[in-house]
Amino acid sequence: MLRAAWRSLLGRRLRLLTSTLAIVLGVAFVAGTLIFTDTLDRSFTSIFDSSVGDVVVQPTGAASSGSDRTTLTVPAGVVADLAALPGAARADGRASGSGVFVVGANGRVVGGQGAPGIWRNDSTAPAAGGVEPLQVLRGRSPRGEQEVAVDTATARRAGYALGDRVRLVSVGERALLTPTLVGLAGFPDGGSLNGASVALFDTATTQRLFLEDRDVFTSVWVTARPGVSQDELRAQVARVLPDGLTAQTGERAAAASASGLLEAISFLTVFLLVFAGIALVVGSFLIVNTFSMLVAQRSRELALLRALGASRGQVTRSVLFEALVVGLLGSAVGLGLGVLLALGIQALFSRLGLDLSSQPLVVETRTPVAALGVGVLVTVVAAYLPARRSARIAPVAALRDDVAMPESTLRLRGWAGLLLVLAGAALGAVGLLAAVSQPGYWVGVGALLAILGVAAASPVLARPFLRVVGAAYTRGFGTVGRLAGENALRNPRRTAATASALMIGLTLVTTMSVAGSSAGASVDRTVARSFLGDVVVSNAVGQPFSAEVASRVEGVEGVGSVTRLRTAESRTDEGRAFLTAADPRTLPDVLRLDLVAGSLADLRGDTLLVGEERAREEGLAVGDEVTFRFPSGPRELRVVGIHDATVAGYLTTLQVLREGGYPPEDSALLVAVAPGADAAAVKTGIEDVTADLPILTVKDQVEYAAEQREPIDRLVLMIYALLGLALVIAVLGVVNTLGLSVVERTREIGLLRAIGVDRRQLRRMIGLESVAIAVLGALLGLGLGLVFGLALMQSLRDEGLEVTRVPWWSLAGYLLAAVVIGLVAAVLPARRAARLDVLDAVSHE
């Protein structure tokens, strides 16, 4: 039996190619995702390990508030006390933060798209374990306010060389700095900053520019003497620290710094693996179809094996053995392709500002194990049902000229599919109508069950559609059309399975189209309804900027008021919390806040406004108090109003953030034009006074709405690109089904050619059959996607996405694309059918 299985496998290797390709693509996505995220993890872990000392001393609030933006500092006098400890080799004051970006010689900001712009004092302090941190490698260390050193990669991207004057956009009191480049910094061991940029100043300059000219530091690194452990040194440090300071071992400090980022990386892994799973599910339809048709074509051979004494188990195992070989081969090739895919993802992220070019790819043991395991498991499971069906061939069937595969009734599949759809609808109703947390998840799980249900019932659903298509084909194309319709209807199980693969991809694409279009329309409505101002100034890379910018804007002729918006991250008893702060006196000039309870006039002192949705989730009412853990310590803010705007969950005053220990850095400026002034002229004036700060953007209301839509559009496009893999596999499924169908109908095709059907008519017949399959999948996908999209938007109405918009033209484009897919997929199978020799085809067995 093993020899027979090998012979069957080698004799049909071309027919198994597309099935193998489906596994290759799915496994490549799994392997590429794991390799890339492991590389990312290793790279950032290395960076954080080199960014801490053996013991790190910092203000207590900076470690407990959940924010890395704070005005809390360590007095310089502490450094000498720590250096005198018996276990300390040295102690070094460190001053660092983010928000300084290098402007290249071409006037564009270097990096910034996710990667931070770091400022830091030049220090030779060794990192934990004696690791050499970032330091000046070429040129010399900066001295004085007019000198700076930047990392080598940033200098290269910016087009600067030693001796050039560098433009720096700063979050400090001075928004623009123009020092001379005197040094190029880097890691002595060749490490990378992953796209971040670093500007080094001498200590006095760093304190003057970023620490209000005080003799303080943001942290202190204490280096252990040989033989002294980090824990021992930390215990010594803790005994001499004054109140308000805390000490951590370098190991714990690095882990704490990396935790948030590594959590984001784990989310990225899950996000990408979801699409790999979609690709594998779609590929499983292709595998089931392929093995079903191959088993059908080998039915006489398998019946003879049964007649010769092979047991049912041996027949089943022979087919599963073929699936195992296909799975192993596809997984092995997919693993190799996954390495190339990881390089491609690495290059893509490099263009987005996350440069991992100097980091070698990391292939953990789990990657090949997971890739091979997933590929083989999916292939074998998908081939199991055809294998079982093959074992049911009766030995006496070998005595007949025609052998029909036993086909179970479709009624059971129809009922099972209906039950899954009903279960999915029930879960969706719970998410939409019941008071449950995270209703989107309920809707999502319900959608998954509904997709599986429709896929299971698709042979039943396909029959009436294919009968209608057959009638239309007959009227439009005569006998050739009737034959195409009958061929598609001949095996509704196979046709529906092929269409289901396309259905899954188009369901998700349609859902995202509805969600993306609706989200964009919701943003437009929110901006139009809530934003009363005329101009918005914000940072193009989503980072805060210097408070000096507001002073510049206030001096522009025609400006009526400038409202500073500042944001901060904190913690409450409910977890992470983000606050927005503004001046309540000017806020009504630029923002419409409709309060459902309380009064905006009460927003002063330790108070805040709460969004209606947030208040409902946390059971808050006017008069309640919320405790925030600010860098300066815990602080209770009293709720004085509940608003229905989607601008912020928590809205407080600038004074609260300032007293809470957050730096005076603005996130956006909302500008109201003075009565009678020309808004366009005012916008031009603001552009003029911020022209030397290319990191800022100046927008009117329409441009601001477009900017808010841009992240949504990017996300939707990225999801489209990822779903493209599933659609490619679905198209391969159509090609494979038609190709195997041609082989299966070789004698029939020969007879058609013998009675006068020419090659062009034969190609047309197969093309029409392919279009019927593709349109069936498209209609099912469009219908499901439309329902899911509408349900998803309904579940998110309380999140501020109040507008539901169906992109009808896009949906029509998808249907047209399905017709094109059907025509393209039929090219190779139709060509093969047309080239068959008539006599050989008629005598084919």
TrEMBL record:
Swiss-Prot/TrEMBL keywords: Cell membrane, Membrane, Transmembrane, Transmembrane helix
Keyword Membrane recorded: yes
Subcellular location: Cell membrane
A Pfam family of this chain: MacB_PCD
Membrane topology value: Multi-pass membrane protein
One Gene Ontology cellular component: plasma membrane
Keyword Phosphoprotein: no
Stretches that traverse the bilayer: 267-296, 319-349, 369-387, 415-435, 441-462, 496-516, 717-743, 764-788, 808-828
A GO MF term: transmembrane transporter activity
All residue ranges annotated as the MacB-like periplasmic core domain in the record: 18-239, 495-688
Domain ABC3 transporter permease C-terminal: from-to ranges: 274-395, 722-837
Family to which the UniProt record says this protein belongs: Belongs to the ABC-4 integral membrane protein family.
Protein name: Putative ABC transport system permease protein
Upper classification of the organism: Bacteria, Bacillati, Actinomycetota, Actinomycetes, Propionibacteriales
